[in-house]
Amino acid sequence: MPKSKEAARANLENLYRIFTVPEAPDSTLGAIDQAITDDVAGFLGTHIVALERTIEEIEADFLSPEIPEDPTFVSEYTEFVKQKLVAQSVHTAAPGFIGHMTSALPYFMLPLARLMTALNQNLVKVETSKAFTPMERQVLAMLHRLVYRSDAGFYPQWVHNSKHALGAFCSGGTIANITALWVARNRLFAPDGDFKGIAAEGLQRSLQHLKADGLAVLVSRRGHYSLGKAADLLGIGRDNLIKIDTDGDNRIDLELLQQELQRLKSCNIRPLAIVGIAGTTETGNVDPLNSLADIAAEYNCHFHVDAAWGGPILFSENYAPLLSGIERADSVTLDAHKQLYVPMGAGMVVFKDPTALSAIEHHAAYILRLGSKDLGSHTLEGSRPGMAMLVHAGLSIIGRKGYELLIDMGIERARHFAEQLRNHEDFELTSEPELNILTYRYAPQSVRRLMAAMNLEQKCQANLLLDQVNRLIQKDQREAGKTFVSRTRLRSKNYGTKVITVLRVVLANPLTTDAILQSVLKEQVELAGQPEICQLLAKIKQLRFPHAGTDLIAEA
Amino acid sequence: MPKSKEAARANLENLYRIFTVPEAPDSTLGAIDQAITDDVAGFLGTHIVALERTIEEIEADFLSPEIPEDPTFVSEYTEFVKQKLVAQSVHTAAPGFIGHMTSALPYFMLPLARLMTALNQNLVKVETSKAFTPMERQVLAMLHRLVYRSDAGFYPQWVHNSKHALGAFCSGGTIANITALWVARNRLFAPDGDFKGIAAEGLQRSLQHLKADGLAVLVSRRGHYSLGKAADLLGIGRDNLIKIDTDGDNRIDLELLQQELQRLKSCNIRPLAIVGIAGTTETGNVDPLNSLADIAAEYNCHFHVDAAWGGPILFSENYAPLLSGIERADSVTLDAHKQLYVPMGAGMVVFKDPTALSAIEHHAAYILRLGSKDLGSHTLEGSRPGMAMLVHAGLSIIGRKGYELLIDMGIERARHFAEQLRNHEDFELTSEPELNILTYRYAPQSVRRLMAAMNLEQKCQANLLLDQVNRLIQKDQREAGKTFVSRTRLRSKNYGTKVITVLRVVLANPLTTDAILQSVLKEQVELAGQPEICQLLAKIKQLRFPHAGTDLIAEA
Predict the structure, then answer these.
(1) Phi and psi for A242 in degrees, rounded to 5?
(2) DSSP label at A320?
(3) What pTM value is reported for the model?
(4) Is the separation of the CB atoms in A103 and A93 below 8 Å?
(5) What is the band of B148 on the pLDDT scale with cuts at 50, 70, 90?
(6) Which of A312, A536, B207, B333 is 20 to 30 A from B509 via CA?
(7) How far are the Cα atoms of B227, B284, B377 from residue B203, in angstroms, in the given order?
(8) Residues of A in Cβ contact (< 8 Å) with B171
(9) Nearest C-alpha of chain A: how many angstroms from B137?
(10) What is the ipTM of this complex?
(11) Over pLDDT 90: what percentage of chain B?
(12) Hey, is A276 helix, strand or coil?
């Protein structure tokens, strides 16, 4: 055999091996796998180094646009992953990581996720998913029932109906929100006589058909940024996503909403949908959903509720009333990778009317044929993994009561933390936790006292300086890598219409204790002792006493 | 302590356990996990039963819309998963499962997927993904370079540029195609003087601004159904997704395309994009990409190539020329969960112009801030898992040469299989495999001989009967559960403009041998022996000899 042929055959055999010969348990990858199985938290705690490397330093390991020409040994690659990727990733499950919505996962999610990967089902059609299709349909029904509390008698005809779906499973809340508004738009411009509907004829002709000069979507200023994407994508335009100011508690101002709806009417702009928020991303507040449902009914427009964060509050007998009115929504977004504690990549939208998704139904010759139960006929995405299995597992293993405990615990911890912040001399609570999210900022009592006596102009200047202080604290704390809070910019009822920079805390990780919260604050106070921050604080004092000497400032 | 308090504490402790205490290796779930680690193929082979239950029978296990009130033991739930879900799922990795685009996975994907789940990074922002962000940016650069072959000197300024992204990673080809057309639309209606652009002002005003009466997207009749969704979603309308007929080899007819473009011009409808296909879903053919690039340039419109299936052909020195012209596309869709052998949920779109994605850029106050390197500023989706790691692993471990072997093997196997079908007396090849997909149908030589002598009307009748025959064979084979081919409806050059039902085979699983392909055909011949099918075939013969007795028919 000539040398090159021999080499080719050897290559081919190696190639078969990667599809047929399992990783040996004592291989590098096998060992990592075992370590994760034995103790994820331990593995992550050991391997995710706290020592910060800048993003630019990390980039140095990911510069080349060349696809390697030759194969690499799995063990060699695994070593790279361990050193360069795992070591420099974010320990999202750490109980001190309270800045974003990603929390710890229940242990059973890991082996089940591996099973899901091994099965590699594709939920777009029954032919590549079989039992996973009825399972996903059941999950949608369970969440539908959680939201709408329809009679048990309602479900048998809909859950596995080949013509319909009670909702759409998707990769996350953004696709869910887009799907909801897509359905709303297509229902508003449904086929009518010679008009074949917007799905066929497009937006321009649809507006002509309804003799409207435009479309608008209304939501509070706290609406998620995915709604802007939806307005862009659907051809509505971001200018027509009308952001209504909020009251002092980050809830939509109903009077302003009514005014805006009147204005749109006078401009012949059709309100496509009113979006209520059940758990704003930045502050965790809930809009007055019942009032929004009334207004949507009055203006005959779609009522969507973005409950990506807050939906699971419905598990809690104590707190479910906060979401009262959600059952009147035409559509509701839920994110399983948030408070259902499922790994990243699991969102849903459910529709009150089980025929609503017909407005975006589509078919093809090789799959999604009419009459099939293929879920892909009613989803924005095409091929999708079997993530619904992990939601099914969570709902079954944790159960309604388990989720209730988790929800109650988070809300109560947030209220307790708010109380501590209110009493802490160095911090100012900037939004009360209605659910388990709150915001605050570093603003020592001495500074606040000075600010109380300032005129508006001085106050604005002082806030700009405090913004810098809080940005620095957040950045330094993130880079120190021990704990993490996020930051955003918000209006605060104490400071009129100007936005200020605040620190944001999300309390969904059941392993986050009061002691950890204390240590987060302690670290922030320490960070505030840096010369750079002291200088900024001194500048605030100077605003109040522009002609004073340093002594007086120090005293104040 | 009162009983209820005691119970509550016990519940709480159990709840902590699911977040902190790993699955014991000897638990039911631990055992499954170990079995998968030891030998996925063996586990799946043993547990996915071939015995078919109807979808209605399976649904009986997934009927209740009730979320269980109380927690369930993990072991109990795992038993349910094993019996009711795994046993009734589809063995997509089986080498006889050649009907769809999901194939076997390299073994290392499983432990790496578990690591990904354990890390639970969220790629929307650096704060929840850190090293995963540069890693995903590198993957996008690698695929960009594979497609566009830009100079190495091109990349350093773009790969990690905080203002831009060379592409967008997403859950699959559908989102990739939608993203491409979204970018195309927003670039066509870019801000211009007082006009703020379509993202802000919406589609209606944009058309007014360009003084156009509509928008159109052009693609061959073989275009993927996701393009219809895109036309609907983006407000263009499905009627304005113009489907151009194909030539005898399922490639777009360039003359008809030119005619259509002229017609649109005369109607003042703006061609938004021409979409070329590199590997049609149903037949695996490649449009003449260079000619399409010329035409797109002539009409000054966006040129998108849907290479979800065929993109990885570029790894092959032998076959890459089939995709010649792809480097002239403005945007290209690629699916890693197809021929990059990554688990479900990994698509990409890359753009020739590294600033193209600015057209859909978006920001928020708490993440995706201007100047951040957050990937979420340029993606349709929001929160996303770290799937890019598995693409990075595939590219590194398998390497360009490894993928080349896989691609070459699939194409050569398909050509060999086509040869066998051509020589088989019971089958008719209905589309030649340009890549590794082909279609054929059961049509015994005796029947074909009779059909050759039929008039057009009789031929149509005969084809309708053969359609039924092939539907039955496909369905029965799927239900028997040993092997699987899919079916679709296509025009075939032998039968004019009528569509016929054909069987479809995708040869991407490296474990599929010629012997397995033989057994697929053998099973189909056996299934064709059923009385129901014999009757249908007899009816075809009757068409030719309407007045003949049974003897003559049997003879013919």
Answers:
(1) -85, 120
(2) G
(3) 0.96
(4) yes
(5) very high
(6) B333
(7) 18, 34, 22
(8) 171, 345, 381, 383-384
(9) 8
(10) 0.96
(11) 84
(12) strand
